[in-house]
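Running log. JK asked me to keep both predictions on one page so they can be read side by side. First protein, sequence followed by its tokens:
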Amino acid sequence: MNPNIHQDQPLLTLGLKPSPELPAVILLHGRGSSAQDMAPLAHSLGTERAAYLMPQAGKNRWYPNSAFSPLEGNQPDLDSALRVVAETIQDLTSQNIPTQKIILGGFSQGACLAAEYAARNPRRYGGLFVLSGALIGPEGTKRDYPGSLEGTPVFLGSSDVDPWVKHSLVAETAAVLKELDGDVDFRTYPGMGHTINEDELQAVRGMITSAGAA
């Protein structure tokens, strides 16, 4: 097993050059996907309004098993994935970009990683968006994360019949992030598949615009 499976992977960038005045979006891809596959989503969200940083996962997945299987089965890949997010944030803050301008988000497995990183490392971010994802770990996992998101805008979008992410887990995630003082907007889309819709895109665009104005 490689404890640094994701550490030497490329980082795709799109949009504006990172600067302290602009929002920077860390966009995390799903299982079997790639950083390049997230480029259309970045363009849909508006590459003219933010810097986009899209890390690539080793083997095109952040962890080998379901996000909701026992945590130990996803190690050491999960710890490596969390370090990728931390290292990307550190690179931005080293350029004097405040965390209030940094937005974390992703789809599916990437959304789970974004949510889990923010919960484990709460602070005031520019935003967190979780598209068809939830906190990592099986149902019943103890969620006693210390700290506060300090009013970070949080958006969660989910189908009520998603075959990969149980709606109850997304609802639990929304409750945990609210308990961590996130400003949570949780929307359920009846009958939607494991995908992203225009209402979700509009919500995330608004989050990016607000972070840019802050």
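And the second, directly underneath as requested:
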Amino acid sequence: MPMTDDVKQPRIRARLTNDTTDFPHNDIANAALYMRERLSKAFEDKDRGDGIFLDMMAMVTMVAFALEGYVNFIGMTLIERSATDKDSAAASWSDYERKSTKDKVKALRKMTGVDIDWNKRPYATIGELNEIRNMFAHPKPHKPKVREWEAVGTDAEFRKQLRDYRPEYEERLTWEFCTRAYDDVEAIWQQLLEAAKINLIDALSGGSQGFELLAWVDENGGETKA
């Protein structure tokens, strides 16, 4: 039964333990899944026209971040297994931090011997996913490919042609690509976990928290052992 404000709680001395681990790849992957479900419903119901592209931007970014989080978790776990000093293991994996996600996957291939075909799904998607992710992470001006051309038509047709112009990232960021990227990243995650012999439950955030009563403390600071 929880304590209420009008119930005076006794003061104690205790030993607190916090044996929990947070793996951010779980939250990021959940964000990607949430955006996928939200967008799937929007396309099925056809009840939204505005904001769908913005949601796809958010989804594909979370998918790319999830892939990097997955790869970092597996790499760190493998290095910790092979090292007696976990601090040195952390330092060893930090050597990969500035590498691209694809290069990190190549490192995992060497560690695990997993069979990877870069020309087929799911791994063929990594390059395109990273390119789109980098367009948003390091945005640069996108000028139209064609600045001037001749055409025959009406005023309304010309205006439509100009309105229909889309920058490269918008042309590439389709719903088909978003769903393919999500499916392929999850497939890569499962394959790498299996190759690294890591149980999925060990990749989830969680643990235990609590405290152990050592002594009762009175108003004067005196203690009575529990």
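Observation for JK regarding the second prediction: DSSP finds eight helices and three strands in the chain.
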